[in-house]
C-alpha cells in the first residue's frame, strides 16, 4: 500500500482544528479513525496490479535520430475499474536528455474486463539494442487516498541502426556509375577492362581504341568502348581498436567510418560487385561474407553495424592483415578504415602492408579533424601560438604518414567526417574508371 498526497492533505487539515480546539487523544482519534477507514476502503476498491496483463507491438528497428513507436496493451482482467499511472521504463539513451519523464509516463483508466493501448515514443541517442525494462503500475482507489503498486515485464527490443546520413550523396554517384557502365549516353565512355560496344570515331578519342578489323568492314572508323568490370570483390575492414573511439566534433571516428562504409556498400552493390565486411581489433567483432547485388547486402551490413562499438585496446595489425587475407580472394579491393596517426601506422600497419599489396589493391581511409586545421591557422594569444604549433606538427606528421603509405602502393583518402563518405565513393569510382577494379 502507498498513500497519496491527498491523504496527507486531509490528515493535515483534520489535525489543525483538533490541535486548536480539542488537543487530546480523543480528538486525534475522531479525525484519524474515519480517515483510516476511508483509506482501507479505498485500497480495497483499487484494481489489483498483479492480475494485469501486458503485450507489446510496434517498431523493432529505427535509424538513429528518428522516432520509434512501441505500443503497450494493458488488459484489466479483474472486476474493478483500473485507475492508474504507469511508467514504461527503457534505458536512458532511449530518449533525449530531459524528455524521459514526459515520454515514459502514462495515465490511464481501464474498465473491468477491457483493455487499453498506450504508445511510448522512443528517440534513441545511441546505436545498438534498446530493451524494455520494468513496467511500474500504481493503481488508485476511487477516492484517490491509497494505491496498490507493482511491477511487470513485457520484453521488447528496438534495434537502433546507423543514421546513414551520406545516402544523400548516392544519386550523384549512381549517375557517375551509369556513365562508367555505359548506361547513359555520353561523349566519352568509361575506360575499363571489359569490352562494351563499337561506335564511330570522334576527335579526341584514344587511337589505341580503334578497331581496325571493324573499320575495314565499313566506311567509318570504329572505336571500341569499354566498361568497368563487374562482380569484383570488395572487402571493407573497420578498425575497432582504441583510435576508433576518439571523437571528431560530436561524431565518434567509428561512426564516421560506418557512414562511409554504408555509402560504399550501396554504390558497390549497384555496380554489381561483391561486398564483404570485417570489423577487427584483436579479434573479429563482426563479419559479413561477400554477396552479390542479388542479396540484400546493405540491410545486412546496416544491421551488423548497429551493435558494433569501439574497444579500448590496441589493434593487432598482423592479425587484421591475416583476417583480411583469409576473407579476400586475390585481386580484391581492401578498404581499411583506420587512423593516420604515425605510431599505429608505422609500428603496426606498414610492416604487414607488403602481404596485402602484393595480392590486392589497398585503400586506407581515415577521418581527419577540422579543428586541427583551425588551430594550426590560429593567431593571437600566447596559448593560441602554442596550440597552432602543435596542430601544425600534427598535420605534418599526418601528411608524412599518408606519403609513406602511398610509396607502398596504397591509395589514401583523408577527409573530415562530413566528407569522408563522398570522398571514398569518388575514389572507388576513379579506380573503376582507371581499370584497377
From TrEMBL:
Residues 198-404 form the DUF58 domain. It holds the Pfam family DUF58. The lineage of its organism: Bacteria, Bacillati, Actinomycetota, Actinomycetes, Kitasatosporales. It comes from the Bacteria. This is DUF58 domain-containing protein.
